[in-house]
Amino acid sequence: MLAMNYRGPYRVRADHMPEPRIEHPNDAIVRVTRSCICGSDLHLFHGLVPDTRVGSTFGHEFCGVVEEIGPSVRNLQVGDQVLVPFNIFCGTCWFCERELYSNCHNVNPEATAVGGIYGYSHTTGGYAGGQAELVRVPMADIGPTVIPSDISLDDAVLLTDAFPTGYQAAEMGGIREDDTVVVFGAGPVGIFAAKSAWLLGAGRVIVVDEVEYRLDFVRRFAHCETVDFRSVRDMAVHLKRMTDGLGPDVCIDAVGAEASGSALQRLTGVQLMLQGGAATVLHWAINSVRKGGTVSIVGVYGPTFNAVPIGNALNKGLTLRMNQASVKRHLPRLIEHVRAGRVKPSELITHRIPLEHVADAYHIFSSKLDGCIKTVLTM
Ligand code: NAD
Ligand code: ZN
Ligand code: ZN
User: Fold this and answer.
1) What is the ipTM of this complex?
2) Pocket-testing residue among 160, 183, 189, ligand 1, by greatest number of atoms within 8 A of Cβ
3) What pLDDT is stored for residue 277 in this prediction?
4) 146: which residues sit within 8 A by CB, 6+ positions away?
């Protein structure tokens, strides 16, 4: 079968690779029909996630048709159209019982923190990903969700990660009626976080980025205000000025480790090393949010960051919340929002690129060329 093949930082290609097989009675094999590239894949692509092995296949945002099921699978049938949440989880452990699927205890026992994720290095279990014609889906009774007939495949594939993650970012913000919410990052996750902030009752939503076409898009899609951070000298001062001097009630980090921006550029080489990278957005969020406010983090951080202004967070009495999203928990509610026409996730899809051109697809998304917001690989 054709599959994306990681060859080292900034090098991916499509190759013929061995087809997956049922390895456990509760596995299914899914024939992939749509598979997205995520901002999280860029951390892998840029070589920033430990234990990302050459020869692995990425891809944790996919939907497809069930091709084969293991003997103990009860909830799926061959031919079902399914969307597959990016988390791999058992459904029965202490964490899954509390719907903390992203922290499942049973799928990735060697790791100390995170549960299983498709195509996301050996730190999340070493599972093959779905940027391929076929993929093995473990615990197939639990994760995959049959796509309702009135939900399009393009909408469905964005329910595997980007929309639920943006929603969880807003939810972890504990937004109260009329709150002002600032979202850092106008990538797919930030765009959905902005949209979700309104769904959860925000009174004002402001999105920060530097990529003009993404800021344009989020203004249209989520009817929010935007800030181009290239024109801002001091983010905390700027956001306080915009919010009667108090600062926003909630700040959301939808950027993560690869943040660019003035705080990073002002650091010297040694400072950068001490800091372990660029935690620009964490600085901006903690320093901008009002006293007693909440910082919600879904942006992914690979390495350790040791220069986060935690003292400032303490003195301001902040609530910090963060996690990988537990996709399955949000699906019933988000499917209703799509059905009711309140959100049209597929509007984010700007590119459809055949899997054989996966190298071009990564290049375009990584370099933000050609107005790219979300790329779907087609098989
Ligand atoms: P993306 O790369 O498309 O978007 C990131 C955006 O951040 C870009 O538009 C970029 O211009 C912008 N940006 C860079 N520096 C910035 C700064 N200093 N201030 C404001 N904006 C800045 O990625 P995405 O798909 O939207 O994902 C965003 C983040 O969410 C990534 O870190 C990804 O790994 C993470 N993620 C987390 C989860 C989860 O479950 N927690 C799930 C999916 C993605
Ligand atoms: Zn993703
Ligand atoms: Zn579990």
Assistant:
1) 0.99
2) 189
3) 42
4) 76, 80, 81, 82
